[in-house]
Amino acid sequence: MKKDNLKHRDINWLYFNERVLLEAKSIDTPLLERLKFLAIFSSNLDEYFKVRVSQLRQIKHLDKKFRKKLMFKANSTLQQILKTINEQQIEFGNVIKATLSELEEHNIYVRNTSNFTNEQKQFLASLFDDSIKEFCSVHKENLELTDGALYLAVTHSDHKYSIVAIPTENQDRFIALPGDGHQFCYLDDAIRLNIQKLLPNKDIDACYSIKISRDAELYLEDDYSDIELVEKIYNSLDKRLSGQATRLLYDETMPSWLIDALKTDFNLGSVDLSPGGKYHNLSDFFSFPIPEGTEHLQYQVKPALPHPELSYAENIFESISTKDQLVHFPYQDFKVVEEFLTTAATDPQVNAIKMTIYRIAKSSSLADAILTALDNNKQVTLFVEAQARFDEANNIKWGRIFEEKGAKVIFSIPQVKVHSKIAMVYRTEEDKVKRYAYIGTGNFNAKTSKIYCDHGLFTANKKITKDLGQVFQVLERKIIVPKLKRLMVSPFTTRITFLNLIQNEINAAREGRKAAITAKMNSLEDSDMIKALYRAVNAGVDVRLIVRGFCCYLTANEDPKEGMKDNIYITSIIDRYLEHGRIYLFENGGDELMYIGSADWMTRNLDRRIEVLTPILDPDIFDELKHILTLQLNDNQKARVLDLENSNEKVAQAPGQEDIRSQYAIYDYLKNKLDENR
């Protein structure tokens, strides 16, 4: 495939983050919820610098022959990225300013050093002396700043500077102030106001916020399928630059002499300098205090619904044995998953439990259930992914705890991540061992289940559980290649099965029969899958995609300037919950096939991760999931079009068409079904 026939994933990701910012800007988003979208935008960008920009920076230092194999120019890509980010940062600042201004209309104020009252100044002086000062550290030049931490660069009259750390680990970022209405200030400004107490012998001019971003560890195996090339890249770098400062975010009002001094002292290049506002780490808006009486400025409360069957079951295994059960988060209560494992932990008929752990919460009922199962002498086998980015330490910690309690714990597999979300319970019934399986699109994590839209299938179907047993044997390294009949499992059968299903639709279209592909995923990046979609579109297959994040699909035409064909339409949904489910639907000559699971159409998910996707075999569940998917396809309130121009325009609502906000419509649909069944 020609290089220019795909969108660059790292550049396209920025337009995903722009969609987040658009939600922060939207008047349809409740005012206090806009702060959360600002926090998400800020948090996303921090991770992007740590990982994606980090990788580009390091690759540009490679030997030219290796860069040529990667098929893109890291330096020019990096320049384009930084240009786009700087433009977005300006808009980010404007949205923050407008949001805070609108909050004042509701008597919610974020004060600063320019408008504190005398009462507030006295309050902050006492607070600083009593509980802030002891945690503030003062440093001279050439300090090794911590990645992502907040600092004030304090200028002196002699054109020198000191660095003061803002102790956000010990203090809340926002401080409630005395005064009418609801008044707050940043911790930063409490320190600015009292900065002379920290530097009593200095003639202080001003304070400027700064933050350093450092390179994260390289994760090249996530992006390049040629393992030999990955090894060559690693070996070609004379010095791994992990931890090197890559970005200085600074107050744009900072004097030029201080910018030059920081640039020199932290060994930064011009492209590493990012002007910003007066405050950084605005991901802390997640913890902005919510004043009483402001419910009208927040999302309407939508409590998780009980599952119509599993939440009321006297015996969860009997319910699953009788009929497959499908759960939808956050619309339905994650407790059904916890109950599945909690019941297994105490059920005398259960012999063994096996499951994968990709991201486990720091404390959870699931962890308690596993520990209870071990106390009850159940055989527990856990596959803990030790390379889950940014969760490595927590996953390993829990793995060691389970191991010490007697579980068989397997940490990762060389060159392959275990990304699947699967569990199996082995239960003796009538002198035979029966298997009960759970296959999901999201992690076993109660906390994230409240904000991630995911689906999970409980089944005792022998064809599925037999296949899943094969997957667990691979994970236990008892077999190398699984024998599969129903499940798609990466890196073994997922790619070829998807390609065959797409080809079937192409054949049908060429024969004049109805042909359609509908897919929902987090990201679309794999060149072979996109090439197959191009062939399908050119053959006349109706292709409808929902892609939350980056989407590298460009155009099925040889000339990208020709535009999209009429039979391909791609949208993205950003709303109060994070869309995370993967659903794949094929017309299949009228006998539709549907799969759900953990894999996106990304090279890493198809070739270098253990992923599991299950067919939906139960007709009632099939209809339920298809209805949910249809609601998302018809969203005309929060969906945006992914076009060639990266315009992020809202989906146009047809005249007379009812308002469809899919996340709310899904909740109402499941609630109505629950009411009908009770």
UniProtKB/TrEMBL annotation:
It comes from Maribacter caenipelagi. Its cofactor is Mg(2+). The keyword ATP-binding applies. This is Polyphosphate kinase. Keywords: ATP-binding, Kinase, Magnesium, Metal-binding, Nucleotide-binding, Phosphoprotein, Transferase. Pfam families: PP_kinase (PF02503), PP_kinase_C (PF13090), PP_kinase_C_1 (PF17941), PP_kinase_N (PF13089). Residues 575-605 form the PLD phosphodiesterase domain. HAMAP family: Polyphosphate_kinase. Its EC number is 2.7.4.1.
